[in-house]
Amino acid sequence: MSNELAKAAEQLRVASCQLTVVLADRDLRRSLLRSPRTGWRAWWGLWRALSRNPGLGFAIMGKRLRTVGLVGTLVGGESLAAHVAAASLRARITVLAERHPDLYAEPFIKELIEAVSDDRQLASARAIRKLVKQRGGAGALNALAPVLSEIAGLNALLDENPFNDEAGWSVTTGAPLRTDWLFGIGADVIARFDRGEGRVEPVAGPSAVDLSGTLMGSCLNLAALGPGELMIQEIEGPDGDTRFLVIAPGMRPGRLSQESPQDFVGAWCNNLKTESTYARCIRKALAASEVPPHAELALVGHSAGGAALMNLAQDTHFSELYKVTHLIVVGAPIDTKTPADRATWVATITNEHDFVPTLDGQLADGTRELHPGWYVVSFHDDALAFPPCHAIERYIYNLTAQIPAECAEIDARLAPYQNTVLRSLTYRMYDH
Amino acid sequence: MDLADRLDDLAAVVTAEARRVAAQAIVLRTIHADPHLIARCDAAQADLFGVARLLRDHSESVRTGARHRPRWVILRGLRR
Prior knowledge:
Order of helices and strands of chain A: HHHHHHHHHHHEHEEHHEHHEEEHHE
Strand order of the largest sheet of chain A: 1-8-2-3-4-5-6-7
Low-confidence stretches of chain B: none
Number of helices of chain B: 3
Low-confidence stretches of chain A: none
Largest sheet of chain B: none
Strand content of chain A: 5-15%
Helix content of chain A: 40-55%
Order of helices and strands of chain B: HHH
Radius of gyration of chain B: 19 Å
Oligomer: heterodimer
Distance between the termini of chain A: 49 Å
């Protein structure tokens, strides 16, 4: 039902958009002078159809119509399309709450969901305050993680701020997120802080490197890498062919903007944009490692590293230069993106109580199946709050203790990369 | 393109969108969605069909050149 509602909402939004185009049409305005009586009657009728409450509502889309839509939204009624989209998200929350009975067992979460659903913003703020007071900020995020994107999307659609509506639509339709959920700050604004062409320097790397070419081995290498580092392994496969394994770690704690792209700014850019300094650094590391054109690559990344690898995989130029055979991400927000090469095998591993993978507005194993061909591993682990629940060390524990069969399945897929490691190269990444 | 023809095109766009909204009302009914949403869809499509009719009247008015004369023009004619 939620998917049907989402599709209906999308159609109503298209109708709102087309009618906003008609309302702003230059020829319609010109015709008002030729026959004002009939002209104004038609124009006013269309304005009323879009602005009256309850009515169809305006659409804030595109550059030219943005002003018309914003004015119409501020002076007019609420958008019907947004309300249908909100109904879709409510249906999704209901399904997710059945899957996670602990959600409604917590009275403040129940209170928050109900307040957001009813567009009672003061009550929502009160419920969040109570939840944070009870569990702390990280604990609240951890508890809300299974429905975090839905709640944020609902709030974006129903609140009085028209600038963040696009984020609510991304959550509803599965389109890539381009703004933040709360204020509607665009990806370009955040990307201004992610300056630099990216630079890599070879470094000694960790003292103990796993040479197994397995998922677990890659995760151990992810944990062993130092701040700002990434690893490329040259492997002679069982068939004698040479292949390359790229291992990209996630964001490092510290200042918002650090000297390497493994910082908060870089993480947001990897999530919201398709190009980033991190992705450019990986390209440069591949060139520095003399990886030949058309070489087969397996990309394994954690958190922001996974998002950066997905950005590379979805780049057509990168896919023409190298053959990305595998993309395996752990705790990374990649669900709204798709590799350029349809043959790329994608696996995502997500703890449903880790909110980072939901930062793209989608849950890998949510109520909508965005990528039927992907190998999606989704599990519950609410023993630790954020950030420990998102750490690669915790995911290593999860792979061993909770999802060993899924880990073995991914290893079987990675068999062409499991033989002899010829070289293990570590690079330190810099923004400039 | 003639202005009246352009207005006919705009009327056609509004009609098409009214049909799209009507189709969504049917979808919402089929999945037993919130009755308020269905009622809003019904009201919106009725509004839009009305707007399409007004736009067609307007295009006809522009085509025949039937300009609305301001009242002072009519009064001046009577005085003569």
